[in-house]
Design a protein that fits this description.
two-stranded antiparallel sheet, globular, disordered N terminus
């Protein structure tokens, strides 16, 4: 099986209507065979194998930037960087993609492990978010993007993800965006039609009750589903790696 880095990049900046220009978005997920990403208490280390996790780092390395949400930052305190064996690194060292965090209320701790990697960190926050942490975060090298709230009243407490993606493109942060996030942010991206490709690792296990891949429903009809078209299914260690394109409504 060829490593992902050996595959030519197939994901240039997409041509959307002017107000919707955004990066190519790949959403990575890892779950049990019945679609559970964590136990009810949030424990998820480790559902998939070391081979699958290493493969995931190779896919991270292909991106210009990684996107996650503040829920993941606060729950797991992840580094969210690329970690590969020495023989897969260039002589100049590891190239780290930029990191983008959807953080509506500017709750990212300045002590977070994500600041340990040498790369740019971009926080996307609401225009009226508290500013008490802003100076400390800027001292850590964070670039803070304040965005207007979406107009829809039912999402007034969230950021407009279209505006986040448009800013990532407009500011030259990324043409290829790799997303690793919780069910809420993943579901919002899928419902909004802003995911181009799904990268899914499935472990040969059944966990029953737990946290889902993405918060999408409830749906009024089966035709309201997020439709996929299979691109490939391969073994990675004991796990399956599925790559699927999202089917756009005609």
């Amino acid at each position: 099986m060829a490593a992902p880095n050996s595959i030519a990049s197939e994901s240039p900046k997409l041509a959307h209507p002017a107000e919707q220009v955004r990066p190519f978005v790949r959403l990575k997920m890892a779950a049990s065979l019945d679609g559970i990403t964590a136990l009810p208490d949030g424990r998820s280390q480790w559902i998939t194998s070391p081979q699958a996790r290493l493969d995931g780092h190779r896919w991270r390395a292909r991106a210009d930037a990684i996107l996650t949400g503040i829920g993941t930052v606060l729950a797991d305190d992840p580094r969210m960087d690329v970690r590969l064996p020495a023989d897969e690194s260039s002589p100049e060292g590891m190239r780290q993609p930029a990191l983008c965090i959807v953080d509506t209320h500017l709750r990212t701790p300045p002590s977070a492990l994500l600041f340990s990697a040498e790369r740019s960190v971009h926080l996307f926050v609401a225009a009226g978010a508290p500013s008490d942490r802003e100076a400390a975060l800027r001292m850590k090298g964070a670039v803070i993007h304040r965005l207007a709230a979406p107009e829809a009243t039912d999402v007034a407490d969230r950021l407009d993800l279209n505006a986040v993606l448009a800013t990532i493109t407009r500011e030259g942060i990324a043409d290829r965006l790799h997303v690793e996030a919780g069910a809420q942010l993943s579901g919002s991206l899928l419902r909004g039609g802003t995911v181009d490709e799904l990268l899914l690792y499935l472990a040969p296990s059944l966990l029953g009750t737990g946290r889902p891949l993405a918060t999408i429903g409830p749906l009024a009809s089966l035709t309201d589903c997020v439709a996929l078209a299979w691109e490939s299914v391969e073994r990675v260690g004991p796990d399956l790696r599925i790559i699927a394109k999202l089917v756009r409504p005609k």
